[in-house]
Sequence to fold (578 residues):
Amino acid sequence: MRQKDQPSPCMIDVFDIIKKTVLDTQKEYLSINSHEAFKRDFLDMYQKNVQSWDPTSKCNAYHIDTLLWTKNGRQFSSVGYADINGDIVVNSDIFPNAKHGYNQRRFLISTLEYAPFVFKKKVNNSYIYEGFCIDLLEELAHKLNFTYTLTEPDDGNWGTITNEEELTFNGLVGQLQREEVDIVAAPIASQAERSPVMDFSYSYYYEYTTVLVKKPDINATKWRTLLDPFKVEVLVAIGIIRLYMFGKCRQDYRISLLAATVLVFLLEKYNPFYDTPQHKEDRMIQGGLHELHSSFWYVFGALLCQGGVHLPQSTAGRTLISCWWLTCIIIVGTYCGNLIAFLTVTKEKPPFNTLAEMLQLKNTYKWGTVGGTSWEMAFPSSSNPTFRATGKAFLEFSKADPTILHQSPPYHINRVKNDEKYAWIGDKTSIEIAMAKECSLVSIKEEFMPLIYVFGFTNNSPHTAVFSEQMIKIHEGGLYQIWKRKWWPKSNFCAGNSIPEAKPISLMDVQSAFYVCLIGIFLGSIAFLVEYCWYKYSSYRQKRRNYSSSAVLDKQGDRPTDSRKTTTSDHKNRQTHL
Fold:
């Protein structure tokens, strides 16, 4: 304030009154949202304070100036005056900056690189920051009329508890707790453990946590292509009488290849239909399914849509065989359709789909997460037993391998690509971006532990409400979606996954068929050797038996030499006939 007509010592007294009024009003303004209400409150308080003013000079009035940012820099501008009677004349807003942002105030803002929210690039020996969060920060700076300087925490952490008794944090949260910075502009998650030491703005992004793993090698399981169209229990139901499945649910499978074989054999062997002389004689001449091996090969041939030489003549046998043929037609049709799908469409599944399944592979797999983040705190201390076991596991892994908690997400992604037995626990956005760039990666189906990304402020900061209100308006304006399309990478479908196309069948695809052929050759050779050895053994025993009989007869003298020769000749003829 300055004297309107001439200088005077009363300047000091009036200035003290104005200063006291401004300070008192500023305290109450924190709870006042209307600019008009603030102006009325200021005038009322000023009149109250000026009542005790006793002018000691002949000054007529004093100017009321406010500091404004103009084209020529920061300058004082007149907004009114106060006369010697205490009356105040205001020509314009006393605090015009109250509705025009922060008047180019400079904030110290801390951040950390985390794509796609914050990118850090080196340009001309200096670093620049880009990304979703930086675009949001630029929009806030424009709307609220402030400037800023970006910095990073020395330890590179996001914010974990370093002392539980004193509740001290490191990283970005620690900077806010120690009031070293004004704001944190990064994808920092709001968390109950952090709320006592900092304030959270309006959330600008919602996210979930999942797990990134490497796809199993599809060629490693193509040896069983002929078995893959059916699950294990279906194959067992076809080939074995009964199978008790492991797990919570146990099921019996009674209708199968062996069961059908036994039933056909029993019905044909003990059926009274064949007790009649005519049917009995026909079966003895032509053969039938009353022999176990004949029943087996007929039932097995029906499964391959080939059948066998002999057909049952009884009504019971024909009924059973007819039902078995219908069963075989359904099974073969279903199998052929699925086999074609398995040969033409590559179906890649992750090694596990839930955290619980991942925990069962603890001796085979290792997993990690970004160190110094909310995940490092949330998992080991979670009330969920699965989360807690997962967190204790990666803390245990980190004792032998500190890189399990490496602070760089690209490091974890590269490790997953190079190590088939490593999994990374991270946010869904980063994992989807990694999958778009590398087709050998896949995420599990389970999504857990939701994340709420916010800007951080010092505890009880007066700026939290101002920034949050503006962030809501930006959200309603649709800028979040525009920035997401700008910084999220375009979809990059892996070859052969998005557009079906004809491809030639390779030897690797049908290797299982050759394995079946080799197994058949091996089993046929074994059967041939067994039959050959059994024939030789039977012939040898027959010769020994005949030789023993001849020796006994010669010794007893029951037959003359001619008779012995005749017997030997008959034996040779019988051997030749056989």
